[in-house]
Amino acid sequence: QMLAVHDIKVVQGENRLFVAMPSRIGSDKKYYDIAHPIDKEFRKELSEEVLKMFEEEKDFCQVPEMEEEYV
User: What pTM did the predictor assign?
Assistant: First the structure.
């Protein structure tokens, strides 16, 4: 069995990247998670896997620097 969760974000914090779960803004202007891991162990496992996939995609998508040409 599988579950798809959309709008998971990788966010640059002050000291490291972290995984932000999908959320909505409530009428009190606070953010509330729509979906989230129930325990610390699964949150750690999910975060590690998402960050691993993020790094793999980031490496795959990098374009070599191009030299500027002046005409």
Answer: 0.70
pLDDT higher than 90, residue 61: no
For residues 37 and 46, the answer to whether their CB atoms sit within 8 Å is: yes
Per this entry, what is the length of the chain?
Answer: 71
Which contacts qualify for 30-36: CB closer than 8 Å, 24 or more apart? 34/7, 35/5
**Pairing of the two strands 23-25 and 17-20:** unpaired
Helix (H, G, I), strand (E, B) or coil at 8: coil
Q: What is the DSSP letter of 41?
A: H
| Residue type at position 34 | I
Whether the per-residue pLDDT at 60 is higher than 70: the answer is yes
DSSP 27: T
Quick check: helix, strand or coil at residue 24?
strand
pLDDT higher than threshold 90 for residue 49: yes
